User: What shape does this take?
Amino acid sequence: MRGYPRHIPYLFLLPALLYFVVFWGYPLFSAVYLSFTSYNFLKSPRWVGVKNYVALFRDGLFYHSLIITVEFAVISQLITMAIGLSLALAVNSKLRGRELFRVILFLPVITSSVAISLMWGYMFDPIYGVLNSVMKALGLPPQQWVHSPSEALASLMIMTIWQWAGYHMFLFLSGLQAIPEEYYHAALIDGANAFRRFFRVTLPLLKPTILFVLVLATIGGLQVFTPVYVLTSGGPVLSTYVLMYYIYQEAFHYLQAGYADAASMIFALIILAVVGLELWLLRKGGLTYYGQRT
Amino acid sequence: MVSALKVKKRYLHVLPLYLALSVVAIAFFFPFFWMLMSSFKSPAELLRLPIVWIPSHFLLSNYPAVFKYVPFTRGLLNSALVTLTSVFGATLISSMAAYALAKYRFAGRGAFLNVILISLSVPGFVTLIPLYDLVYRFGWINSYLALIIPYLGSAYSIFLLRQYIITIPDSLIEAARLDGANEFRIFWRVVFPLMRPALAVVIFWNFFNIWNDFLWPLLVINDPKLYTVQLVLSQLQGYESGVSFVGILMAGSFMAILPTLTIYLLGQSQMKRFYNLGGVKG
Assistant: This one.
């Protein structure tokens, strides 16, 4: 079936290949190398062995960042997934007006995080913010939101959940629509109620989608940066000093690029471990590569 | 009679769901409504308690004020230039690569596909510092090159387009080949037009991501002349932290999200077509 010169596919591939070699492959190796050096972007990197890693294990701020980042990611992403799945189930039926609903829920996904942080920053204002007005109307005590060390991280979680719920809904929805109707008919004939249909048909068949969303959410949630930069600068009292902010500060503020790079290597290994664990936990149950259906 | 009862019963069944969904929709839409309302409020109204839900008269002066504090026009133009150029480049480069990976058999094809899949699952921050280092050594800091070139490769776009091109029948390509069309003509005239639904999604997605990106421009640009709109917005916030300034801040935010908002709303029909096509095949 070949009727073309042998070099043709390489010509099509060339620009992408060039890009991935220079702007992805090289930085990837460079990332590993720089983590063993002392480097400040200005002078050439100096090999220091595992010194950065040793120092990181003694760095209290690094531990603190690690813990609150994991806390942020796990809590916010699990809630986002639960909301996303519920919403997807709700709008999967042939409801009138569901298009409008989808459009509205997807709006935060396409909106800039800077603008979102600014509008939520105003809503979070303890005195003039709309959230405390609502709390008051509901008879609940006013909160300090991002201005209190004990509430700042949770406030950012609320904002993040709002921002990404629509995206998760969308992903779950395409997973739900891939489930053949016949399974539901069969379950109905067998007399399964809605509860049983969900746990015996929907959930098992949705496993690949759940897995995909979980991996995506883990990677996304652990990388939170912009809301922290815009709204809290890691504070108050370091309560929102997440890992990306830590790496940013170390590399570009204190110019400890090698040290920051080692931190991002450890961070990457943690993500790899978490994602690996998720894959392993969800392995049983017809794992297919999700991308097939996009 | 019986069927009328049935219909009524069905609606009663759906009613709570509708109510719940309406509450959710309102809650999700509220921040946008609030941003818009606040952008029309005077400092006095912003500082009034109990809260002013809808301004007594819609003050427009917050919008021109944004341009007085920061180079907002410049930011919009920079973002437009950077986003349009890189979306165009990324789409072209990705669709060519996707075509090669989908419709040709050649040595190294599997390896490149693996690279694409691996890079999809490596979080972006891993290469952030070395990428900055590379761009710094190229002398691209504070230049458009730093804002455009690193966006040109998109593993996600290549992957998605490839999945779509696979479904285009080989017979179309072979027919064109028999007619004597060269390979680039086949790509441009036969395959590219058929890719449109998938291209639409890739274009939208890249547009939103590049327009909204904050961290990368923050790193490579510190000359206010080259600020993207997101950097300008963050600069505006730095001016004043009081609530009386919020009107101007919200006016700026609204203007900054207007382009993505417009494209998203106008693009609904394209997006829908893609899902329909996807649904038929799946």
